Amino acid sequence: MGHLKERDITVIGGGIAGLTAALALSQRGAHVQVMERAEALRQLGAGIQISPNAGIVLETLGLGPALDKMSWRSDGVLLHDHAGRQVAALPLAARRPDLSFRFVHRARLVELLANAAENAGVTLTLNTEIEALPDAALVIGADGLHSRVREVLNGRRAPFFTGQTAWRALISDPEPDAYARVFMGSGRHLVSYRLPGDLRNIVAVMERPDWAEEGWSHPDDPENLRAAFARFGGPVPGWLSRLENVSKWGLFRHDVAERWHDGRRVIIGDAAHPTLPFLAQGAVLAIEDAWLLTEALDRIEDQQAALARFQALRAPRVTRIVEAANANARNYHLRGPARLVGHAGLRAISRFASERLMRGFDWIYDYDPTAERL
Predict the structure, then answer these.
(1) Letter string b/e over residues 68-91, b meaning 16 or more CB atoms within 10 A of that residue's CB
(2) Which pLDDT score, from 0 to 100, does residue 303 have?
(3) Which listed residue, 84, 97, 174, 335, has the most CB atoms within 10 A of its CB?
């Protein structure tokens, strides 16, 4: 170790991926500049889930106590049918009492990372539009779905519209609830969980043929979301009655990038492997990437070899998670007899073989990036 000391590194993108990488690199002695085109680090969206495979990275970076104060602990996931009846329970935290599952507001996490990065010596430059990639010894592209760095490395490729549109909203909700709840209906589903500050995060996805633009910042009429989920029961009608502001975006499937680096430029997070939001692993994978890229650069003296090792290590895991998220999109939206059979099977497994059901997620949550051997 020690190959990062005094190295100059430029990170493009001041989101979760870029700031986590900047913090980790700076803690190893690198001189890091983060270039962000926004005037301020205002993160759109709302809640995200931080499972243990990312939480352990943030804790190792020294952010554990602060993260605990700003997050809500999760006990696991409850699956419901569209009427609100419970189909299956995944008490993940009880199975892993030594690990933490957290709900956190994205903006608060970005704020925490930015403050920690600046305290570690990172230079954060805002309101900087990248016309051409910097001529630097190492440029890290953490610039998201429409990454300029990815385009330079791989060319421009159009994503595939999945035929699904998603809504995101926050509502006021003082009722304690330690579970992420998924309500599954025909051609649509809704996910909700509590956040600190008496808030509830809502993400609702519906299959529809009309195209919606990618991104989180497109406002929509709350009545459209209420109408799309009017037949849902349980707590959903009460939640939707409190909607005030709603964002809408189209869900697009992107391939995992074939080329992650060229020896001087490398991509991480959504720039390398955009993921549909059906396993709550998008931000988590970005945090894993940031840690393991730092490890590779610190442990392997030759930069080309370090970047090659990083891609070889990450590509199989992220590809598997992207594919699993794609499959979840189908499983949540079953119709007719397939839905009846699928939900009956989930009820039976949850009741009589819950351990088997949860073991299916071990490869995701039990992974420890900080223990990876490079």
Answers:
(1) eebbbebbbbbbbbbeeeebbbbe
(2) 98
(3) 84
**If you count DSSP H runs as helices and E runs as strands, how many of each does the chain have, helices first?**
13, 16
Read off the amino acid at residue 223. E
Which residues are known to be catalytic? Answer: 193
User: Across the beta sheet with 265-267, what order do the strands follow?
Assistant: 123-125, 31-35, 8-12, 139-141, 265-267
Rounded Cα distance between 146 and 12, Å, is: 12
- Cα dihedral 246, 252, 255, 261, rounded to 10, equals -50
In angstroms, rounded to a whole number, what is the distance separating the alpha carbons of residues 80 and 71? 24
Is residue 39 within 8 A of residue 126, CB to CB? The reply is yes
Assign domain 8-158+254-371 to its CATH architecture.
3-Layer(bba) Sandwich (3.50)
Q: Is the pLDDT of residue 334 over 90?
A: no
63 CB neighbour count, 10 Å cutoff: 20
Structural contact between residues 104 and 70, judged by C-beta atoms closer than 8 angstroms: yes
Rounded Cα–Cα distance for residues 360 and 345 (Å): 15
**pTM over cut 0.85:** yes
> Where do the structural domains in the chain lie, given as residue ranges?
8-158+254-371
- Residues 129-132: contacts with CB within 8 Å, 24+ apart? 129/37, 130/12, 130/35, 130/37
User: Rounded CA gap, 338 and 216, in Å?
Assistant: 32
Burial of 160 (0-12, 13-18, 19+ CB in 10 A): exposed
Residues 60 and 27: beta-carbon distance below 8 Å: no
Asked if 67 contacts 104 with a C-beta cutoff of 8 angstroms, the reply is yes
Query: pLDDT-derived band of residue 217, with 50, 70 and 90 as boundaries?
Result: low
Output the CA–CA distances (angstroms, integers) from residue 326 to 5, 106, 159, 222, 229, in the order listed: 40, 23, 14, 27, 22
Distance CA 25, CA 317 (A): 22
Mean pLDDT of 251-265: 93
